[in-house]
Write a structure and sequence with these properties.
The longest helix has 14 residues. A hairpin with a 4-residue loop joins strand 6 and strand 7. The protein is α+β, with helices and mostly antiparallel strands and about 180 residues long. Strands 1, 2, 3, 4, 5, 6, 7 and 8 form an eight-stranded mixed β-sheet that branches. The protein has a three-stranded antiparallel β-sheet with strand order 9-10-11. The protein contains three helices and eleven strands; from the N terminus they run ββββαββββαβββα. It has a domain of about 120 residues: Nucleoside Triphosphate Pyrophosphohydrolase, CATH 3.90.79.
Length: about 180
């Protein structure tokens, strides 16, 4: 699910001083299926403004570890208390060159559907998505993505709940699919 590219924007060599961060795939039951939330980020001048993403963000010094980062950021962005989440484990770290972040994807679950309270500054919308929808191969497509500074790239993406999920989030979800496909 990596974007097709031929420029330095996507040099995947880990740069010195890469910031650490974490995101959470939060599984929960809803209407006899397993769902997880995505967020639509607010528009801002940074590399990821307006994009669909997993809840998460930058490691802070008060975080015990990157699992704690994922839980804290999920609470801040979509209002789900860490006390309602049981952590399962982690997927492979992923380096994001454009923002110089090394992201640790974490997987957890809640025993009931959370009540989402999106942060009014960081989150435009919580996008509830079923794992069944994620596993449907007809939801994997490709298109031209328009980036800032008039950059265009061809990228595979997931069409989830009528949202374009591409880039790092798509790559993380692709690994998640391979992990759970046979369960």
């Amino acid at each position: 699910m990596a974007p097709l590219h031929n420029n330095s924007r996507f040099n995947h060599k880990l740069r010195e001083g890469a910031r650490k961060g974490s995101v959470l795939i939060l599984l929960y039951p809803n209407a006899d299926e397993i769902h997880f939330p995505l967020i639509q980020r607010s528009e801002y001048a940074g590399a990821h403004g307006g994009q669909i993403a997993l809840p998460g963000g930058k490691y802070e010094s008060e975080d015990k570890d990157l699992f704690d980062t994922a839980l804290r950021e999920t609470g801040e962005e979509i209002g789900v208390s860490s006390g309602k989440i049981t952590l399962i484990g982690a997927l492979t770290d992923l380096y994001i060159p454009v923002s110089n972040f090394l992201i640790s994807p974490v997987v957890g679950y809640a025993t009931e559907k959370p009540e989402f309270v999106p942060d009014s500054i960081e989150v435009v919308e919580v996008v509830e998505t079923s794992v069944k929808q994620l596993l449907n191969p007809s939801n994997i497509l490709e298109k031209t993505i328009h980036l800032p500074q008039k950059v265009k790239i061809r990228a595979p993406y997931f069409n989830l709940s009528n949202k374009t999920v591409w880039g790092a989030t798509a790559m993380i979800l692709s690994e998640f699919i391979e992990t759970v496909r046979d369960l």
